[in-house]
Amino acid sequence: MIGQLKDKQIQLKRIYIEAKLPEPLQPLKELANNLWWSWSKSAIELFESIDREQFISLRYNPVALLEELSPARAQELAADSSFIQQLNSVYAEFQSYLSEEPAADSPQIAYFSMEYGLHISLRLYSGGLGVLAGDYLKEASDSNSNMVAVGLLYRYGYFEQAISLHGDQINNYPPQKFTKLPIRPVRDAQGEWLKISVGLKGRMVYAKIWELKVGRISLYLMDTDIDENDWHDRTLTHQLYGGDNEHRLRQEILLGIGGARALQALGVEADIYHCNEGHAAFLNLERLRGYVREQQLSYAAAVEAVRATSLFTTHTPVPAGHDYFHENLLRDYLYNYALELGIDWQTFVALGKIDPHNHDELFSMSHLAIRLSQEVNGVSRLHGAVSQKMFNVLYPGYNPEELHIHYVTNSVHYPTWIAKEWHDLYVETFGEAFLKDQSNKAYWRKIYDVPAEQIMGIRRKLKARLLGYVRDTLQEDLTRRGENPRSIFELLNAIQEDALVIGFARRFATYKRAHLLFSNLDRLASILNNSGRPLIFLFAGKAHPADGGGQGLIKHIIEVSKRPEFKGKVIFLENYNMEMAKLLVQGVDIWLNTPTRPKEASGTSGMKAALNGVMNFSVLDGWWAEGFRPDAGWELPLERTYDNQELQNELDAETIYNTLEHDILPKYYDVDETGISERWVAYIRAIIAEVAPEFTMKRMLDDYYSRFYNKLYERGQLARQNGCKQAKAIAAWKQNMKQRWDHIELAQADTFDSDNQALQTGEAFKATLRIYLNGVQPEDLGVEVAFFSRVNEEELELKFTQELELKAVRDGLAEFTCTVDPKLAGVFEYGFRAFPKSEQLAHRQDLPLVKWL
Ligand SMILES: *Cc1c(COP(=O)(O)O)cnc(C)c1O
């Protein structure tokens, strides 16, 4: 039949037949088309009760579930009064959730990200960065923030991982069926699908805009796989992090420039633009263009208006995590764009370079983002400091710790990651109010009153669920892989239900050192085979298709897992994703993380574990440096003992083996007659009470408001009032300072004679400096003394700075003096420096001129 149709060349048309639900089931459709359901325990249960098996096999996708629902089952449900009652109650909850509106005076925030990890049925993410963005939107919804988000709708997304019989990673890209996703086309007033376009190398590329509802928040997604584009351009939004460097540039132009145009087409004029990682940094170019072309601002004034309303969050100290483009490539795409901004090419490339004249230096998206954002942050306390060092090159004359780069420690969305069993217990024990005040430890500390049996009961139940899943997926995956039935059978038999289970799952980037545990296989084998204390290691994670090193690690783990001594004890699970992550972080006993210091910017999976009473055993890097408590987990110290990475790996592995053998295993297996280890339960209580509340997304969102959004809102409004009057004034003032800066000179200095004398403690350090102003207003000039102690040849630690006082101005000379008690003893180095000073500057690096005198 099929062959015949083909032969006759019949013209076939496509038709989409939407499943029509019986009237009483109609609300299901609305529920399925807003991701709110995915973090509502009652809505999840509702969809599960329709057909649990089917729901799971459809990757928990309720849109697909409703589409596949047989008319018979639909009729049955429509007639089932208890189901209808359940449905109506969930629907009422949803309606009431949606009916709340953000406070009228809250700033509107536009959030841009290349990836969003919202749910496994939407393959728009690769790893932690995306999951963070997804969790953030969910909390923004729960907290009623005034936020819109922008991203790309990928036809194939990130790959699905399979493993071959030989342990090689296979990357599959099944297409997403957009009709089965909870998205809807955005239409204009005429009912036409809203489209935007960007010029890519002289050709217009079009993108349609879809809307994805994340509770109360709209996420707008751009899609170029449409008829208007030729084949090559249609593939632009096919894969996340696929293709070459040029492809990435094209995607980032679409995300940034196209995204800003999409918001404009939607009529959204946000107060603050938040760039999640450098991928979207072109966004600020398009905003510049708006100010230059539509509001006739000078380029410099436009920069002020844009900077005053922009925040850039940087996510990694690993170079591969930052995007760089060669100037020649950039010129092919953005030369005309620079002209539209009214600037020459040199000025344009200077936005992403240290030295715009250096043709070989690559243009950095992170540098671009920093230069067009007044505020910048890393994602943990340590990562903030690491970022200050990394971006110090942009601010010569300042020490890293003086930079305006701050931090907000990442977090996780409680309702998404909490197991239902814990959630029920928390609500019952802490009271409903805690859900609105999640970072308040007073609630969480009520866990100390919960009996040990109840706590262990939940932990055991979650572990059993995880191990059940492990068996099922192993059986399925190994069968498909072509493993022989006997070895599958042996493997499944070797898995011990009562074992201590340790999980390690994340992207397989080499710096995450997934192989660390296998540094000494004999030692590991002896720990694992110490009968009476069974132990299982579960591994999962994808390596980027271009990362041979990461794929090698996976292969190595697969090989190890096949050895007889590790059978059922070292297990690799294929295709890590958010649903597997939930099972793992809820079901294991310990979450292991072993990154190379200091490369873990934050890490979030360990926080998901903490919410569920799972201990962490991790390097004191990223979030764990803030979260660790000796009574709630284990550490690998932050300080390196060896410069040589091999030796450091060996030492870290030894530390893990010893901690396991002498601390973790004895505590876990130290059970009383009821089978419970009180010492273990104490750890669980401590991580829930003292650690988990600090890493809820509510806390992170609050931090973004208090540290950045509120400030930017105020400054941005000021800068843009009255036709951007203030932005223009600041731009003019900066221009003037830049022009005169080189000619500011020290005329004379009378200081303490440190060459020939020692200052006594308690004695004042005095100095008088006369400075030739070259037309600069004396009040626009700051002069300060800075004291350092030397760490090594390159590094100085700043001890303090003290600003000098302006005493007099005569004949173009300004006299500055100081009298300081250093309150220090020892050997120091000091110097004087001048800097531009104005109340209108947000911070020193807002105009990063410094002159050491
Ligand atoms: C949470 C999560 C991550 C992030 O894990 P890290 O420990 O931060 O690297 C990655 N992938 C998935 C699927 C996750 O759920």
From TrEMBL:
Tell me which Gene3D superfamilies the record gives. Glycogen Phosphorylase B
Q: Where is the signal peptide?
A: none
At which residues is N6-(pyridoxal phosphate)lysine found? Answer: K608
Ranges that cross the membrane = none
Give the reactions, separated by semicolons, that this protein catalyses.
[(1->4)-alpha-D-glucosyl](n) + phosphate = [(1->4)-alpha-D-glucosyl](n-1) + alpha-D-glucose 1-phosphate
What processes in GO biological process is this protein linked to?
carbohydrate metabolic process
Q: Boundaries of each DUF3417 domain copy?
A: 21-122
Function as written in the Swiss-Prot or TrEMBL entry = Phosphorylase is an important allosteric enzyme in carbohydrate metabolism. Enzymes from different sources differ in their regulatory mechanisms and in their natural substrates. However, all known phosphorylases share catalytic and structural properties.
Protein name listed in UniProt? glycogen phosphorylase
